[in-house]
Specification:
single chain, 378 residues, alpha+beta, 4-stranded antiparallel β-sheet
């Protein structure tokens, strides 16, 4: 499974009536977002809803008014139909101004609802649920967005809609895949929007471009096409990685009968995972940067190469791959990079890669070492 992190930041509404924080479930490969959770700490909700969202008898006919009905039922309140602007009574009507400030219990209700499968829509549409209309103007000026990131006043929702992962046109929210991904991501420290910009410059430059004081629709749609192409590349590489992994597993099963004993020369009853010397997530990152499809395919073959294999138990695998506390040098010797790793009593099984299997693995050992500062001294 991929590595995941949570990008978290505070946001405020343009009118100051809403605030809270958003958490974005992000793959460390490509910086693609798979899901989002919102947590309002302050919110108001307009009771009036755009008249065109209803038929003449006041029945909700648009998807947004039907969705808003569900939210209002949770809050035990009722939508009011706004009078159309061309109606002679529009100027004297108070419906379009009626709103309520939500208390803590109500905030909890809307947070749970927006983060559930029942709300199967975008973050950008959250504003429509609260306002009872479709806010406009952010294509002319990003600062016109209903929600802005607190510290730098970034407009993030319109960018998020371009970069979030989609499957068959639908958001993947609530899938079992995402539940497991959230669980893994919550074990890691959250990252800030500034860290995300630094970590993924290839896509964050478009985020910054969309937050210029002014841009036209042509720029927005151009960036949308770039992000869609980027996202498609990420998906294609992920699909290739799955196929290469199947081949990798078959190759290992065919070649080894007792991998820990064969590769490390130690008899062990430990169950093992099929770890990569040069990790899979780094291979995918290299493939994403490839200038040609031929080169990308060549890079991806490193995933299925059994010479890129080490049999490691789950704890040691995490020390090696996620925490980067250990590695092996070109002589096949285990190198401890963090003394805390010594707490893993299983390391005694992995002190030396047998010479018979070392030669074919050195290129991957060297490649992974390049990811560490001061690698030449290890």
């Amino acid at each position: 499974m991929e590595n995941f992190e949570i990008l978290e930041f505070k946001f405020v509404s343009r009118n100051g009536e809403q605030s809270g924080k958003i958490q974005l479930l992000m793959s460390t490969f490509g910086g693609i977002f798979y899901d989002w959770h919102v947590y309002f700490d302050k919110a108001t909700i307009q009771l009036g809803t755009t008249g065109s969202w209803f038929d003449n008898s006041g029945v909700a006919i648009k998807s947004n008014s039907k969705l808003r009905d569900k939210l209002f039922n949770k809050l035990n309140i009722e939508q009011l139909v706004r009078i159309k602007k061309d109606d002679k009574n529009y100027s004297t009507s108070s419906i379009h101004d009626k709103k309520i400030s939500l208390n803590n219990d109500q905030l909890s209700i809307i947070n749970n609802w927006f983060n559930s499968l029942e709300y199967n829509s975008t973050f950008k549409n959250v504003a429509s649920m609260l306002l009872g209309c479709n806010p406009t103007g952010e294509l002319l000026n990003p600062k016109n967005a209903q929600f802005l990131e607190s510290d730098h006043k970034y407009n993030f929702s319109i960018f998020l809609s371009q970069l979030i992962d989609k499957k068959d046109g639908e958001y993947r929210r609530g899938e079992n895949y995402n539940a497991r991904a959230w669980e893994l991501a919550k074990k890691q420290p959250t990252i800030s929007i500034t860290e995300w910009i630094s970590q993924f410059p290839d896509i964050s430059k478009y985020f910054l471009e969309l937050n210029q004081k002014q841009y036209n629709k042509a720029v927005f749609y151009k960036i949308g096409r770039v992000l869609k192409f980027y996202s498609l590349n990420v998906h294609e590489i992920n699909n290739m990685a799955k196929k290469e992994w199947v081949a990798y597993s078959k190759n290992i099963n065919a070649r080894y009968s007792n991998p820990i004993k064969e590769i490390f020369g130690v008899s062990s009853l430990l169950s093992y995972q099929k770890a990569h010397i040069y990790p899979r997530h780094l291979i995918k990152q290299d493939a994403l940067k490839a200038k040609s499809k031929e080169n990308r395919n060549k890079i991806m073959k490193m995933i299925s190469d059994e010479n890129n294999f080490l049999p490691l138990d789950a704890t040691t695998h995490e020390l090696y791959d996620r925490k980067k506390n250990i590695l092996w040098n070109e002589k096949g010797n285990l190198v401890i990079l963090d003394l805390k790793a010594n707490e893993d009593k299983n390391l005694v099984n992995y002190k030396k890669i047998e010479n018979k299997y070392l030669g074919s693995r050195v290129k991957y050992i060297k490649k992974y070492k390049e990811c560490f500062e001061g690698a030449s001294k290890l």
